[in-house]
Design brief:
Layout lengths: L3 H9 L7 E4 L18 E4 L3 E4 L22 E7 L2 H9 L5 E4 L3 E3 L4 E2 L14 H7 L2 E5 L11 E2 L14 E3 L3 E6 L4 E7 L5 H6 L6 E8 L3
Parallel strand pairs: 1-2, 1-5, 5-8, 6-9, 8-10, 12-13
Antiparallel strand pairs: 2-3, 3-4, 6-7, 10-11, 11-12
């Protein structure tokens, strides 16, 4: 199966020149290390930073420069800093082209649950609800199954929803799924090297469609 680094490298292929992109906490933050050479992408953080660079090397760590997940980051040339209110105005105003989020569950119709774990203390959903409602394209990067081996791509989410019918693409350690807006089902378009369509379908609780000739993910 694909590693977290390989999943986020595949997610980075969805970036386009000039995009303003928000990376969710956890695995999606690794996308910052895989921006294609020569591509001009502006990474935004809800705590008020536009222009996040790659994660810092030990000699460049600045404890005052953090992302929304409280990880230390770098700022690229031309980066700007502003209030959290301005940051959310960007999100709610439709000025963010794409967000890449983690998830605990994604339903077959594109619902997402990514902020609450039963029995665990959580601080809340952060900016995720605003992102899935205000961003033009929502990509989820996550493992295909949870630690119990159960599918995270389900018929219906059992956890509290962050958003309904908002996910456009899911990239997991097994495959790439793209939402067909007319049929409201994900289409299996790419499979991880060494795995088969049949295996992906068997490990997916949700009803999914299969493209005529699914490609192999370039890992």
């Amino acid at each position: 199966m694909l590693t977290r680094d390989q999943i986020t490298r595949r997610a980075a292929q969805e970036l386009r020149d000039g995009y303003v992109v928000n990376l969710g906490i956890g695995m999606p933050t690794l996308v910052a290390n895989h921006i294609p050479p020569g591509m001009d992408v502006w990474l935004q953080s809800e705590n008020g930073l536009l222009g996040i660079g790659p994660f810092p090397t030990p000699d460049r760590v600045d404890p005052d420069l953090i992302n929304a997940g409280k990880q230390t980051v770098t700022a690229r040339t031309g980066a700007s800093f502003f209030s959290s209110a301005d940051s959310f105005a960007m999100i709610r105003g439709g000025h963010i082209d794409m967000c890449i989020l983690g998830a605990m569950e994604v339903s077959q119709e594109g619902d997402i649950a990514n902020w609450m774990i039963p029995g665990k203390m959580v601080k809340g959903m952060g900016g995720a609800m605003d992102l899935v409602a205000g961003v033009r394209k929502v990509v989820v990067a996550m493992e295909h199954c949870n630690k119990q081996g159960e599918s995270k791509i389900v018929k219906q989410c059992s956890l509290p929803l962050t958003g309904q019918r908002c996910v456009n693409m899911v990239i997991t350690d097994l495959c790439v799924l793209v939402m067909d807006p007319a049929k409201r089902r994900f289409v299996l378009t790419e499979v991880a090297p060494g795995h088969t369509v049949e295996e992906v379908v068997s490990k997916t609780e949700a009803e999914i469609l299969v493209a005529d000739h699914p490609a192999t993910i370039a890992a």
